[in-house]
Design brief:
Helices cover 61% and strands 8% of the residues. It is built from eight helices and three strands, in the order αααβααββααα. The protein has helices spanning 2-18, 21-24, 28-40, 45-52, 56-69, 90-100, 103-111, 117-136; strands spanning 43-44, 72-76, 84-88. It is elongated and about 55 Å long.
Length: 158
């Protein structure tokens, strides 16, 4: 299991580097929020928290930081004034779209530099298949999943 964990962690590091998290000076949690907004558009903070698995307070802090940088705008939900909606600015959305074009192939080629062309093609195909089996065909979930059993709200007091 340790090998699987280490592989997953290294793949996550490669992905974060590829997507520019280091260049932007973002912590992994902040980058998750930014990515979620890029993929899902205007959203309530609570919805972002549910999709990313981050605490709502962490999402709020990230959103506040993005707004201060001029990367995002916030507004009250017209249907429920208690909720805050957040969206990326057009400039950030455009910059994000430009970053995504063609970077993944280049990044994998660099990460697998020790492999020859045939082996790299085999590994890339295997990675695509793993993604299909383990990610694309699964319902989104929070990570880590809550532990089974009673939650603090449902546990009885003795």
């Amino acid at each position: 299991m340790s090998d699987l964990y280490q592989l997953g962690r290294r793949l996550a590091e490669i992905a974060l580097e590829d997507m520019g998290a280091n260049e932007l000076g973002l912590a992994p949690g902040e980058f998750l929020v930014l990515q979620d907004l890029f993929l899902n558009g205007r959203s309530a903070i609570k919805d972002i928290a549910q999709r990313t698995g981050l605490a709502q307070s962490r999402v709020s802090t990230s959103v506040r930081s993005f707004a201060e940088r001029g990367w995002a705008t916030t507004s009250a939900d017209p249907h429920d004034g208690r909720k805050t909606l957040v969206d990326l600015t057009d400039d950030v959305r455009t910059a994000g779209s430009k970053r995504r074009v063609g970077r993944a192939d280049k990044t994998l080629t660099q990460a697998l530099a020790a492999a020859d062309d045939d082996e790299r093609a085999t590994l890339t195909a295997a990675l695509a298949r793993l993604h299909q089996l383990l990610v694309a065909e699964q319902a989104p979930r929070r990570f880590p999943d809550p532990a089974p059993g009673p939650t603090p709200r449902t546990a009885r007091k003795r």
